[in-house]
Each structure stands twice: as structure tokens, then as C-alpha cells.
Amino acid sequence: MVASRRDRASSKDSEPAVDAHRFEPADLEHYYRSMLLIRRFEERAGQLYGMGLIGGFCHLYIGQEAVVVGLQALAREGDSIITSYRDHGHMLATGMDPKGVMAELTGRIGGYSKGKGGSMHMFSREKRFFGGHGIVGAAVPLGTGLAFAHQYNEDGGICFCYFGDGATNQGQVYESFNMAALWKLPVVYVIENNRYGMGTSVERAAAAGDLSQRGAAYGIPGKGVNGMNVLEVIEGAAEAVDHVRGGNGPYLLDVKTYRYRGHSMSDPAKYRSKDEVSKMRSESDPIDQLKKRLLEDGVFDEAHLKDIDKQVKEIVGEAAEFAQNSPEPDPAELWTDILVDA
Amino acid sequence: MPTQILMPALSPTMEEGTLARWLKAEGDTIEAGDVIAEIETDKATMEFEAVDEGVLGKILVPGGTDGVKVNQPIGILLAEGEDESALEDAVKAAESKSGPKSEPASAPAEAEPPSSPKPEAAPAPAQEESDEDPEPTYDSFKRQSVREALRDAMAEEMRRDPDVFVMGEEVAQYEGAYKITQGLLAEFGDKRVVDTPITEMGFAGLGVGAAFAQLKPIVEFMTFNFSMQAIDQIINSAAKTLYMAGGKMGCPIVFRGPNGAAARVAAQHSQCYASWYAHVPGLKVIAPWSAADAKGLLKAAIRDPNPVVFLENEILYGQTFDVPDVEDFVLPIGKAKVERRGTDVTLVAFSRMVGHCMEAAETLAGEGISAEVINLRTLRPLDTATILRSVRKTNRVVTVEEGWPFAGIGAEIGQLCMEQAFDWLDAPVTRVAGADVPMPYAANLEKLALPQPAQVVEAARAVCYASSQG
User: If you compute the radius of gyration of chain A from its CA atoms, what whole number of angstroms results?
Assistant: First the structure.
């Protein structure tokens, strides 16, 4: 599902601080609900992992929810989206079915990839979600290719191409930047900067700190955005999306966010202090921030938000139920989907 | 109903761990996301967060306990309003299922390990037909170079399908480093004939992304040596995605360009990638020899809904052959061609080495040895039926390839013959391959590193137990 878009014409002369009153209540509710769905879904995924029902690598999106929910608020029908392996949130934000996503995590036939892809590899042509890619940086040329197809087909769509701060040190990212700028491809490059590429902080990995300027050599405009506040993501990214939709070529967003959990389930996260994590959780949580704003501004009352919590919990409960009851793929599936019949 | 808190698995391989300490006491209120305990795995100490909210009613496994099995209940969480009696029942229920045997009721049944596929269980090799299946015959031909045939194939397919485009280094304004894309820019414009920067990984990945969006890119590598820069995109992105997507995300793309040794360009520019790409499920791999092969197979590759690696040869570009002069000449992928019929020995080759085999067969004929020459045309899927049919007739096989012998195409064919034609073999399958060295530059050494027709003749004599002539 594509979030309804509000009129951004008046945002030019506004203060940078985001005022919830400038958003439609229905949109605000959608952002809240989407972020909460991702949070509860990921918590449940973590639990199922703990029970041994999900195996292998499992990278949770907890803490980063505002990034994809904010950007999807600016997406239109027909746009494409691609990311790397921390991908559950993106799938839910594009409206993919939580049941199918969770069942893929448990490796069951009801999963989006029939259980053959797992956490990092799911796709939906219908929602124009193109994965789900496991190699750091590899999704960037692929997303650039999706943008190339938008331009080739003159369909008016743009590509939202997500990657992490860790990927910004891969060479193929800059090969992509060069071609995208050279050919003015309609792509919004979104760095989900959660400060750590696995266990290595950005400071220890990047020679220059400001990742938004990584496209400067190619003439790609860039800016930093607070990724812990969904309304600020929307406000901050609007300019980028307008630039790209206007046929001016790519734009680079350095969206500063934070993951509460380890890189994957087996990461004890020794490279950062507990205080750092708890400070982010208590002061900058994207869901708490929006909730507080909605209550303080009187957009919704506590009861209404509780109702949403309850609905989300039910959706996640049903997804977990489905993911445990869906059968494993038939052994014959081992030999299918290797090639398309010519 | 009270919820059991189960010992979590905190790494892909964890089966048990130490419950180092509880961070919550019985009676404490717990919010989803609270860290309730610390668990030591074999690798690290991890925090264990609550998923459900409630009150910690009972700790079943105290802090400091070693060897706690994954999924063993370690505590009981009471929901709002639940009391002592609910707790007692829950404790009993938990104790009855604790211990190493405990498994969540809904855990997946232990999957039977897939029985290792027997050759016939694997994607079925083309069934041997009762008789040979010769290509249709054609009435008229035109003389064409391999270069012209490739160009015509692309032009015809681009006329036929607006989603087909070609991209690569020097393909447009320069008209191809080897002039394969000559005239395409003039006919199709720069939207569909795209000059790229020198950026193999980037444009290979870009092409794959465009193919996910259902365009049909032809990605030209100036030579396949440079495809090593892009091999992650070819294998991890193009070849594997269909499988990883449960069949939902196909990738109709052709990667093409000259493969193998040209002449005097030394080690980094003279390598055969046939066995590299033929190793990979999810790819089709084609290596044409003649201009007819080039035309018919490139057209088929462009139409194929799968990623195809199309290995050309620079030395063949200028060679001319008869190409059937028909409206729409397309050859089937996965079908070899018997280029010359014979009865005493089968010579199996692809690309330029087919020419060497034809030359060798001529020499052998003069010595009374009748050689059959198989032009593989496609390496994956391999036309095993044609090879086996020939082997069962001649009982002797020599494989010829430019690439290194170790784990090469010849090794694969040798294994095929052993598995499926063992009783028909009258001599060991013999390989003629490139020397197992990086390609030298010096003219004499380069010649020594590459298979020569004389070596093919010698190998054929050896498997026929015929003495060397002269």
C-alpha cells in the first residue's frame, strides 16, 4: 500500500521543527501504525529466532522504523524500492503481507519465496519491492538499473535505493553514482546510517564523516536527515524526492538512525556502550516520539492509540501463527525455480 | 493465560547456554523490549529482551545455571489480572515439558535430509532420443563473418522487441571495440545503444536491475576477462535471484563478449571462463563456433527469459561461414551439433577449438581414423544425449578446450562418460586443454600454452591405440 501523500507546497516557508498539525490525521495514523507494525513484527521475529524457528542470519530493523516509513510516505504507485539484508521493515512498509514475510523467515512454503530465500531474499513485483540482497553494496547498481528502466520506459517512476553506512565504502556504489548522475537517472539513494557497519563505527570506517557528501564528486546533491523522527524524515526527504521526480538525476540522503539490536541475532554488540543504546531508546525512539506528539497535540487520544496497538498485535500474532503452521516446502521444491522455462 | 519464557537461541548454532543472571525479579512488571536476563552463548554474553508484557510470576531456572537447553522454559510471565492459581498450573505445565527434550509443539518436523541427487534425479538431462535429431536443412546460405552474424542477431532482436537494448564500453559511438555493434547506434539511437564508463561491476549490476524490471539488456564486456570485476553481480544477483525469489523474479539478460585467448595479450587478457560460468546453476552458458552458431544462438539467448553468458572468441570474429539465409534463424539452446560424422573416435569441443578438431579430423582421415566432431554450442545445459550417443558409437573420446584442465569442461565430460557410458569406453577419456600456466606473452610460449590441432591428432591416435605417424 502506498501512503497517501500530503501537499508539500506550503512546506517551503515553514520552520524546520516539524509540526504534526501540518499532516493529515489519517496520514499520521498510518505512520504510527506502520512503525508499530515493524517494531512488533521484528520483536516477534526475534522471539521466533530464540525458539529456533528462524535460522541463519536475521537482521532486525528495530530503532530504524522511521526511515522507511517516512520515505514510503513520499512514494507513489509505480515507484520501485530495493534494499540490502535488513529488509523486513521495507517489505512491511510497502504493504507486503506480514504472514508471507514471517513464513519466509521460518522457511515455510507460505513465505514470499516459498522458504527458499529466507530473511534476506524476498521480492514482490506487485508492490515493486525488488529485494532483499545479501551482498553489501550490490543492491546499489541493481537499484540504479531499476531507475534506468523507469527512464527507459518513461513511466514516471523513481527508485528508492537503500543501503547502509557500511556499504558506502564499496566501490560499486560509486560506479553507480557516476552512471546515475551521468544519465540523470531517477533514483533516491538512501543511506540508512545506523552508525555501525556490523561492529565498526562510521568514524572508524569512513575517511570523511559526512556521508551525505559522498556523491559530491559526481555532482549529486546530498543532505543529512534525522532518521529517528518520521515527520522529519518526510520533511527532509521531500526535497530529494522532488529533485529526482523533476528529472534532475539522483539525490543522496544520509538518514541518521540507530539500530537497537545487534547487527544480526548473534551479535552481542560489544562495540558500543549500553548507555548509548538506552539513551537512544529513551530519548529518540521514533515510535515514542510520534506517540508523544500525537497525544500532546491532541491528534489522537490514548484510547485510540491503544486500539492501534491492539490491532497491530493481532496482525503480528496471526503472522507468527501462520509462519509456524505453514508447512515446510516439499522436497521437490529443491529442484524448481532454477531457470524459467524458455 | 500465563506465558512461558523460553531459553532463547541467540546464534545460528546455539543449542544450550548459561543463564548468567536475571535482571528482573519475581513480581516485577515487564514491558515488551525490556532486557530481562543475560545469556551466555559459546561466543558471547547476550541480552535477552522480553517480547510480551506482564508480570514475572516465577523464575524456573535461577541465574548462574549452565547447560540450559534452547526452548526450555526459564520463567513464567503473568498477564494483567492473572493470579497465583494460574501460576501454579503454568509451573506444572512448564516442569512437565522442561528438560532437553522440550520442543515447541509447533517446531518444524526434522526435515529429512534430501537424498543426494542421483544423476537422474537432477534436472533431467536431455533424454536420448531413439535416433539422431539433425538440424533442419536449408536451401540458401549467405557467407558471413562471425562479427556480422552477431551484429545481425542483435539488430534483428532489437527490431523485434523494444525492450532489448545493448550497453557496454565503446558499444555506441566507437561501434564496438571489436566492431560487433557496428551500425547499431545509427539504427537504434543512444537510448538503446548505451556507451558506459569503464565500470564493469556497475553496469553489470545496472543491467541486472533493469532486467528485474523486465527490460532485456545485452551487456557487452569488452572481453570476458573484465567480467571478473562483475562476477558477483552475474552469479549472486543474476543467476540466484529466481531461486531465492521462489520463482518470482526472473532476470532476462545476456552477458556477451570475447572469451579466451586472443593473440599476444598475455595472462590478464587471455583466459577462458567457460568452466567458471558453466559451474553455476541459474545461468545458461553458450559458446558458439561458426557464424551460424553465433547468429542463431545469440538470437535465442536474447529471447531466453534467463541470464545467459555468451562466450565469443576474438579470433573467430573475422572468420566467415555459411549462415542459413532465412527470415528468422534461431537455434535451440542446449543442443550440440555434430559437425562431422565419424565412427572411430569422438572429438568434443566448443568455440574456436571446434575448428582445431575439424582440422585434426581431416588429418586423421588421411590416416584411416574416422573422427566424429561434436560442437557443443551450449555448455550449460550440456547436451549430454548427443555426446553419449556418439561415445556409444565410437567408444573413444577426446575433449578439447582452451581453458585450464583442472575442473574444466573436459573433466566434466570425462565424468559424464564414466557415469553414463562406462561400459562403452574402449580407452580412457582424454583431455587436450590449455597448459596449466598463466598465459605467457612470448610468441613461442603462447603457442605452447594453447591446444594445437597436432595435439588433438596425437590424442585421437592414442585413444585409438594407433601409432604416431611421422
Answer: 19
